[in-house]
Amino acid sequence: MTGWQTLFYKEVLRFWKVSFQTIAAPVLTAVLYLLIFGHVLEDHVKVYDRIGYTAFLVPGLVMMSLLQNAFANSSSSLIQSKIMGSLVFVLLTPLSHWGWFAAYVGSSIVRGLAVGLGVFVVTLAFARPEFAAPVWIAVFALLGAALLATLGLIAGLWADKFDQMAAFQNFVIVPMTFLSGVFYSIQSLPPFWQAVSHLNPFFYMIDGFRYGFFGQSDTSPWLSLAIVGSAWLAVSALAIHLLRTGYKIRN
Amino acid sequence: MPAVSFQSVSKTFSTPKGPFQALDGVSLDIEEGEFFGLLGPNGAGKTTLISILAGLARASSGRVLVQGSDVQSDYAAARRKLGIVPQELVFDPFFNVREALRIQSGYFGVKNNDDWIDELLENLGLADKATSNMRQLSGGMKRRVLVAQALVHKPPIIVLDEPTAGVDVELRQTLWHFVARLNKQGHTVLLTTHYLEEAEALCNRIAMLKRGASGGRVVALSTTSELLQAASTNVLRFKTDDALPPALAAVARVTGRVVQLPAQQAEDIESHLATLRAAGVRVHDVEIRRADLEDVFLSVMAESRYPDPAAAPPPADGPEETAEGGVRL
User: Fold this and answer.
1) Is residue B14 part of a domain?
2) Do A100 and A90 contact (CB within 8 A), yes or no?
3) Is residue B50 one of the residues assigned to a domain?
4) Which end of chain A has fewer CB atoms surrounding its CB within 10 Å, N or C?
């Protein structure tokens, strides 16, 4: 293995060794959401006039779990190794900033997809969503995981304390995911909140992902792809710049 | 070409209280195959200098070359040539010893490294800990793993930043035996330590850093034997429970009941003893010994003076580096 492949492997091994916490726990959380919200709302809500609420909820929960775990992986790995000092083992190596980026983002995509797949498989017991356009499912799963993994990388570099990281996660990532249409179609919102939702990049990830299942979405999947793709390129450029300059890791 | 070349390296950190200059134009070369000691009190800038060499920090000005490779512009080549044992006792809690060493090899692109890893484990007394998780190891064992991690890619230059701080005698001996062997095989070794007897025994050349008004600077740079010869002093050592007369107290090194007084020549010893007798100080266990590196170190640290920005004395007042890289003490 080359240097970046080793770092990628090490990062995958890291979350795999604690998979009960990093994969099983988020899958359980998502299933609890499905059970509770599905039970309460299944008979009361129909989305796009034909889809049952539980079936509608599945792609949203899959994407939410995927996004949150992709973020959690790179961010928690970096902040832990920064605070424990073990990041020095990587800092002393000839790995380039591109290698760092590929390894941290790649491994976080793997965790995001693993959790997303786990949620999807378990929820199959409760609902059978359609697969109208599987390519869109794969594209948005990958791109969404990549975007959040890259954001996690930036947050991990920026944060000096677990407190700061928790604040970033709880006050930015979680609200943006919850308010992106995971639990509802934004068409059910008043016009003002619909407009606000369109400013949330997370909305496009979940909407595009959902299009892959139902062939129907709140906005065009091409627009979602353009916005999510541009957002990923922008945050990637920032992450690469921070790694190249050694932001908060090389004094 | 020197193994390591520090060229006018300065470093200023930004702190909440304003800029803090840690290094002030440090220049020194470490030649291939040397066992080089970098000494200085806490805050003199030793670890900052090592950090700049390792790429953990960036010099504010000046540059550092590792066998000709610039640590910033050609960092990948420079880091391949360096094996750094960090000062902090850090470890990755997710892995066992062998996994940690395999991963570290992989970072440097070294494949199928198990033979060398086994040799490192054997030489550092870690063979029976290969499958132990890092969390289960004692501090001394973790330190050994740090050394092994620094050596997995067989670097020609080994940097040990206070590797024996707080470790037991057995590890010290294992470590020095192994590092001395690597040095004999041609590896260049750069050592920072507070244990001056170690530096005296191991290093063939030594630089001493001291913090001045504008950051750490080199105040002595010479071979170990030249430094000891330059001191050319003896030490009168005795024990006492009484207070020393002020004239002697000013120059004495006191550790508990043990008092050590520098004595350039035999007359100084007589004079010291006469002063003690006159003051009624009762002494016992009296001995005279040659000055060691600790005496030289203390003498250099006490005597070196830096140009004060407000009232700069002539540079010749303090110890100065000679054109040959030696030092006038």
Assistant:
1) yes
2) yes
3) yes
4) C
Q: Do B94 and A91 touch (CB under 8 A)?
A: no
B273 touches chain A (CB under 8 A): no
- DSSP label of B264: S
CA-nearest residue of chain B to A11? B94
ipTM for the complex shown: 0.89
Q: How many domains does chain B have?
A: 2
Closest among B191, B199, B207 to B325, alpha carbons compared: B207
- Choose the closest CB to B106 out of A6, A81, A96: A6
Q: How far is B70 from chain A (nearest CA, A)?
A: 13
My answer on whether B25 and B58 are in the same domain is: yes
B276 lies in which domain range? 233-290
**Residues making up chain B, counted from first to last:** 329
**Chain A residue numbers touching B82 (CB-CB < 8 A):** 92
pTM beyond 0.80, yes or no? yes
Domain ranges of chain A: 19-245
Convert B66-101 to b/e letters by CB count within 10 Å (16 or more is b): bbebebeeebbebbbbbbbbbbeebbbebbbbbbbb
Give the domain CATH number at B52: 3.40.50.300
Does residue B36 form part of some domain?
yes
Q: pLDDT tens-digit profile of B194-247?
A: 888 888 899 999 999 988 877 888 888 888 888 887 776 788 899 999 999 998
**Do B170 and B55 reside in the same domain of the chain?**
yes
Query: By CA distance, what is A9's nearest residue in B?
Result: B103
How confident is residue B304, by pLDDT bands cut at 50, 70 and 90? low
